[in-house]
Amino acid sequence: MKRLRIGLPPLDQLTVDSVVTFAWLERGVVVAEGQVPLQQLGKKRQAADCFLHPRDSLLTSLELPPLPLAKTVAAVECAAQALILGAVEQMHVAHGPRESDGRVQVAWAPKAGLSQLGQVLAQVPLTLRGLYPAPFALPVGTAALHDGYLLSRHSLQQGAVHPLGQQALGEQLDAQLVDAPQRWSGAAPAWGLHSSLNQRASGGWGRALACVAVATAIWAVGLNLYAARQADEGLRLKALMSQQVRQAFPALPVVLNPLQQARQQLAARQAGTAADPGERFSRLLQLAGNHLPFMVGSVENLTFEQGRLHLGFSADSRNPAVDGDWQAALAEAGFSAARDEQGWTLGPAETAIAPEAGDE
User: Fold this and answer.
1) More exposed terminus of the chain, fewer Cβ within 10 Å: N or C?
2) Is 359 within a domain?
């Protein structure tokens, strides 16, 4: 699998159009190298190891006793305060593991420059796999000259930058001087400055949060569409119910709550207290036909007023037979009947005319 390595210019000069040195490694061997504008390397959103310019690669090593990780971090931060020229809060400090000789490699870089790097890589775009000081692109035990600086790699975790360049070269007798492309083939250390950019964390969590946001938006849109559909269906059902109630109860002037009004009208019909006079007349006429069969053939006229039905008999049928339990049946329905000289009057039990004394 190929790995892309990029040599960066000074961070304060970095833009998407900056010309950078790149190298492609396959199984630790450089198979291609060159110089191109940075934005050309991000066309396929490549993952890359980036190496700082020597000017931004501020390195030193400390000799520390064996300490727990938390105390090692505290010791490095304390020592860095004495080494860094300027405000410590404006620098990002990183360190490698403690070597067998007790030395710990320490590096720092300005947070503003690292922030600039993160913004540029996001524009290109490139995925940052690792960010290391310049010497860590070299194979172990080698040295190289770059922009007047001498870079040397002492071990997997240790390296150095010498600002004097050629003058310092004579002191590096134990290091083999290499040229490109070999200078890009070194193994990456187990530590680096990339943690300050939170590239990996933000890439994973940022993508996850973006997916959650998209899913939430889709869910909200779907819920709104479902609610709108249900609202339309509810309006359609209400309109259908209103139409059916109007057909069943044409006397209703307006239908606002179809279900409730239908229940009220049905209850009124069953109790014989329907508000519509036509319904009251039909109800009483039906009761007379069902419960007063002895009146068949004897009724001469009908009179309906004040919610009561008067049945007038012909002269030859003033005293029809009234045997049977029809009064009890009328009472169960909430009605009663009373007889007078002209016939019978039917109405609700509370308004029916009481029978005269002696009537049967």
Assistant:
1) N
2) no
